[in-house]
Write a structure and sequence with these properties.
single chain, rod-shaped, 12% helix, 4-stranded antiparallel β-sheet, 3 domains, 36% strand, 254 residues, mainly beta
Length: 254
C-alpha cells in the first residue's frame, strides 16, 4: 500500500472533496483499458482527444467512456478508419457516492438570551467609598441628587462568561460588559435571628464567593462571614448597610 496526501485547497464543500478524492484514487489504482478498433467512414468526424462511448454486450461493457489517442483515416484505396483510444480517467467506472454524513459537532457557544434573574438597585455610599476611596475629584463632581446603580445578573447558561448592560438616553447604547453574579436559593426559610448554617441550593458561580463580601436576600443586606462549599451553607452577619434582619421564605434568592 502506498500512501499519498492530496490537498484540494480551493474546494470548501465536503461532498465535492469526496468526489475528487474518489476520482484521483480510482485513476491511481485502476489500470486503464486500451481500445483499438477499425470502422467505416462513419468514424471520420472523430478527432484526437474526443471522448466516445463504447459498448460490447458480449463482455458486459456498456457506455464505457474512452478518449481517442490516435486516428488513422485510411488511404484512397483503403477507406477503413483505425482508432486507438484509452479508457477516460474521469469516467472509469460508475461510482456511487454515499451521502456525506452530517457533522455531529455542536457549537459549545449558546445564543445570547435575556437574563431570567436580574436585579438593579441604588449603590450605597459604603460601596462607592470602597470603590473610589477618598478621591476628591469624584466626590466633588458627584451630584447630590444623583444615584449610582448596581446590577446583578444570574448566568442563564453554563457557557456564558459575561453580560452586557445597555442604557437608553434616546437610543440604546452599551454601557458595560461585566461578569455574572454568584447566586442561589435558600434551601429553607430563615428567621431574623439566623446567622449560621444558612443552607443554599440551585447555586451558580458560588465558588466566586469569599468571606467578608456582602449578599442581598430580598431587600436585606448581609455580610458573608464564612462559606462551606461542601455542606452548602453560609454564615451571615444580618442587617447591614441600614437594613434590618427579617424573615425570608424558602427559595428566596440570594
Amino acid at each position: 500500500m502506498n500512501a499519498m496526501e492530496l490537498n484540494y485547497d480551493m474546494v470548501r464543500d465536503s461532498a465535492t472533496v469526496q468526489q475528487l478524492a474518489e476520482r484521483d484514487l480510482r485513476n491511481l489504482a485502476t489500470p486503464l483499458a486500451v481500445l483499438e478498433l477499425t470502422g467505416t467512414r462513419a468514424l471520420e468526424d472523430l478527432r484526437i482527444g474526443d471522448v466516445c462511448k463504447f459498448s460490447w454486450a458480449k463482455y458486459g461493457i456498456l457506455d464505457e467512456l474512452f478518449r481517442i489517442t490516435n486516428i488513422d483515416y485510411g488511404t484512397l484505396t483503403d477507406g477503413r478508419i483505425r482508432v486507438q483510444a484509452m479508457q477516460d480517467p474521469y469516467g472509469a467506472g460508475a461510482t456511487i457516492y454515499a451521502p456525506v454524513p452530517a457533522s455531529e459537532w455542536e457549537s459549545p457557544v449558546s445564543t445570547p438570551v435575556a437574563a431570567t434573574y436580574r436585579r438593579v438597585w441604588e449603590s450605597p455610599y459604603y460601596v462607592l467609598g470602597r470603590r473610589f476611596g477618598i478621591l476628591p475629584d469624584f466626590w466633588a463632581m458627584m451630584d447630590l441628587d444623583a444615584a449610582y446603580l448596581q446590577e446583578a445578573v444570574q448566568k442563564p447558561n453554563t457557557d456564558y462568561l459575561q453580560w452586557e448592560l445597555w442604557t437608553k438616553g434616546g437610543a440604546y447604547s452599551q454601557a458595560a460588559v461585566t461578569p455574572f453574579c454568584p447566586t442561589g436559593l435558600l434551601a429553607a426559610a430563615i428567621d431574623p435571628e439566623a446567622t449560621t448554617d444558612t443552607t443554599f441550593v440551585d447555586v451558580h458561580d458560588v465558588d466566586q464567593v469569599t468571606a467578608e463580601t456582602y449578599c442581598i436576600i430580598d431587600n436585606e443586606w448581609c455580610e458573608v462571614t464564612a462559606i462551606d462549599f461542601e455542606a452548602g451553607t453560609l454564615s451571615l452577619k444580618r442587617g447591614i448597610l441600614d437594613t434590618v434582619p427579617v424573615a425570608h421564605a424558602e427559595s428566596a434568592r440570594i
